[in-house]
Amino acid sequence: MVLSEHPLRERMTWFWHGHWATSYQKVDDALPMYLQNQTLRKFALGNFTDMSRAMVNDGALIFWLDGQTNTIKAPNENLSRELMELFTLGVNRYSESDVRETAKALTGYKVDKSSGAVTFLPKQHYSSPISFLGTRGTFDASSLSNFLVARNDCALFITERLWYRFISSSQPLGDQTLVNSFKDRDIASLVKAIGTHRALDDENNSMVKSPIDWFVATCRALNITPSQFSNVGALRNNLNLLGQVPFFPPNVGGWPVDQAWLSTSSAQYRISFATSLIKEGDLSPIEDLPARNRIDGLADWLGVAEWSSRTKLALTGARKDPARMTLLALCSPEYVVSA
Predict the structure, then answer these.
(1) Which H helix or E strand runs over 130?
(2) Burial class (CB in 10 A: 0-12, 13-18, 19+), 232
(3) Where is pLDDT greater, at 278 or 74?
(4) Which of 10, 237, 310, 331 could pair covalently with 1 via S-S, beta carbons 3.0-4.6 A apart?
(5) Is 201 in the same domain as 173?
(6) Residue 2 maps to a domain
C-alpha cells in the first residue's frame, strides 16, 4: 500500500481482506494466506461474482470457517452462515433453515493445510436437492455462490459495506443509484460511484483513519519503506498496540471502523509510534521551508484541508522544531480524521 503504483487496487485489496476476514492465527500457514491475498488483489476491482466464487473455494477461508469439517453426517454451519450474513447478503436476509440447507451444498471440500489446495470429494458431498431462499435444486460451493450473488440483497449489501467503510459509519445508505451501479456486480463501477458521490463533500461524514490507513499515509509522507525500517518487528508491535495487524483480524467480521479507533490509550500509542517513524523519516518538505511557512506547508504535505485554531496554535509553538511540529501534525485531529 505504501509503494504501489496502483494504490486504489491495494486499498481495495485491504478492504476485501476485512470483508472476507481470515486470520493467520487459526490458519497458521503462510502459503494459504498468501494465495488468498493474491485472489483478493486479482478481483479487487473486478467482478464480485467471480470473486465470491473464488473465495468459497479458497483454502484459507474454508479452513478458517471449519468448512473442511462440514460432512454429510455432521454438518458444520459456520461457512454457510457467514457466507450469507457477512459476505453476500447481510443480516436478517436469510433464515436458520437457509443456513442448515446451504451448509449441505458446502460439504465434500477438503483443504491441504500447508498448501491451501482444495479438493472436492463427490462421495462426501450432499448431492440431493436443497431448499433455501425460495428455491430448490442441487448446489455445490460455486453454484451456491452464484445464486447468492445474483440476488438483489447482495447488490444492496455490498453497496452498504462500501458506504459504511468509505462514506459514513453512522448515516445509512439512502441512494439507490449507488446500488444500481453494482447491478452487473462490477466492483470498479461501484467504487467509482462511491468515490464521486456528493456525500463525500459533507463534513458530517468525516471518518477516523484506521491504524493501517494512518500508518500507510504517514509512511508515504515521510518516505519510509516499511520493509526497510530499522526494526520491522517494532512496526508490527506498534500496529498490534493500535489494534490492527494485517492477516490478523479480530474475528470473521473484520476490524471496527471510525470512532472505534479513538481512545486515550490509542492516542498515546499513536504518539509513540509517530515518534519512532519521524526519527527515520524524511522531514525535508518541512525543514527546507522558512519557519513562517511551515504551518501551511505541513497542511499541503499531509493533505489537510485546514488546521483548527487550536491545532494551529500548537503548531505555531513548534515552528522552529520540524520533528516536533511533524509529530503534532501526525497526531492532530485533522490528520487522524479523514475529512
Answers:
(1) strand 130-132
(2) exposed
(3) 278
(4) 10
(5) yes
(6) no
Domain boundary among 205, 222, 245: 205
Q: Are residues 215 and 329 in the same domain?
A: yes
For 201-214, the pLDDT digits (tens) are 888 889 999 999 99
**Count of C-beta atoms within a 10 Å radius of residue 30:** 12
Number of structural domains found in the chain: 3
pLDDT band at 307 (very low <50, low <70, confident <90, very high): very high
| Structural domain range at position 160 | 152-205
Q: Tell me which residue has cell 509512511.
A: 219
Give the model's pLDDT for residue 338.
Answer: 85
pLDDT at 339 over 90: no
Contact 35, 22 (CB under 8 A): no
Domain assignment present for residue 179? The answer is: yes
257 in the same domain as 241: yes
- For the segment 44-85, what is each residue's pLDDT rounded down to a tens digit? 999 999 999 999 999 999 999 999 999 998 889 999 999 999
Phi, psi at 164, each rounded to 5°: -65, -35
**How much is the pTM?**
0.94
Decide: helix, strand or coil at residue 120: strand
> Is residue 214 in a domain?
yes
- Burial zone of 40 (CB within 10 Å; 0-12 exposed, 13-18 middle, 19+ buried): buried
HEC per residue, 269-308: HHHHHHHHHHHHCCCHHHHCCCHHHHHHHHHHHHCCCCCC
Per the DSSP assignment, residues forming a β-bridge with 60 are: none
Do residue 44 and residue 125 come from a single domain?
yes
